[in-house]
Design brief:
Length: about 70
Amino acid sequence: MAIMLSKTYAAFKASGASDLQAQEAAEELATYENRLSGIESDLKTIKRDLSETKWLVRILVGFLLVWLLRSFLA
């Protein structure tokens, strides 16, 4: 048996769906919820990596500006 959202299953049952239909619908929704959780986790990782990259770019731009100022003022 796959993962199933119990409250969703109960809601489908209360609305008059058969056992099999309610179970399949609840399992399908659980699958989408798991996929969305995975995507959310991936987005957090990308956001963290982007934040690190922004700091690196700032440092490199700073070094470039110092190098340019030294070459013009020397």
